[in-house]
Amino acid sequence: MTDLSRFPITKRWPAQDPSKLQLYSFPTPNGVKVSIALEELGIPYEAHLVHIGKNETWTEDFLTLNPNGKIPAIVDPNGPGGKPFGLFESGAILLYLAEKTGKLLPQDPALRAETIQWVFFQMGGVGPMFGQFGFFFKFAGKDIEDKRPLERYQNEAKRLLGVIEQRMEGRTWFMGDEYTIADLAIFPWVRSLREGYGAAEVLGLDDLPNTKAWVERCIARPASQIGLNVPPRP
């Protein structure tokens, strides 16, 4: 049996089957990227709910796996060299899983680099900017009297959506005919603008037909239908 005892996180969230990949997550846009990827790739895994509302990412056990205190994180019992391997950061996990399986990432070097480019576009722009917009639009930030922060992030969210809308002109997926980790990285965040933040109208999502149709295609995939609810929201 695979021994995961060197990972203290497994004491707080024990593995029922240590031979399976262990996912520590919460169903946020960043979290579901990985659960959907695991479903797409057919990798056996166990999902452990790390409740961000209860600050469980800041517990000593979780911080031993991700010192940055954010979900998602994984422990792969069959990592490089056949040894258990821990990893955090959703973009890094997507790239790791794609390279490990040879799926969701083009083999052509130029297309591979272009795919990773769009993953970085999400990690460096879409995620942080949409997240800040959501904070100031729906959550505690909405009560701040000075509306300049909201306006800043709202305008940047619209700009980024414009980039996505242009990219999806005449395309089925971000890389054309092939569904990749670029789609997986970006669509949960675009979906969250409507489903999580209730901001479809203020951001004009219905005026972006390419983006809207692409998100609907992503959501309709069987792996998304499962992964969007993993771990189940408490």
Largest sheet: 4 strands, mixed
CATH C-level category of the largest domain: Mainly Alpha
C-alpha Rg (nearest Å)? 18 Å
Share of β-strand residues: 5-15%
Shape: globular
* CA(first)-CA(last) distance: 31 Å
Q: What letter string, H or E per element, gives the SSE order?
A: HEHEHEEHHHHHHH
Q: Work out the count of structural domains.
A: 2
Care to describe what's here?
Belongs to the GST superfamily. Residues 18-105 form the GST N-terminal domain. This is Glutathione S-transferase N-terminal domain-containing protein. Pfam families: GST_C, GST_N. The model has no long low-confidence stretch (mean pLDDT 97). Strands 2-1-3-4 form a four-stranded mixed β-sheet, covered by helices on one side. It folds into two domains: 9-103, Glutaredoxin; 109-221, Glutathione S-transferase Yfyf (Class Pi), Chain A, domain 2, CATH 1.20.1050.10. The chain is globular, with a radius of gyration of 18 Å. Strand 3 (73-76) and strand 4 (85-88) form a beta hairpin. The protein is built from ten helices and four strands, in the order αβαβαββααααααα. By secondary structure, it is α+β, with helices and mostly antiparallel strands.
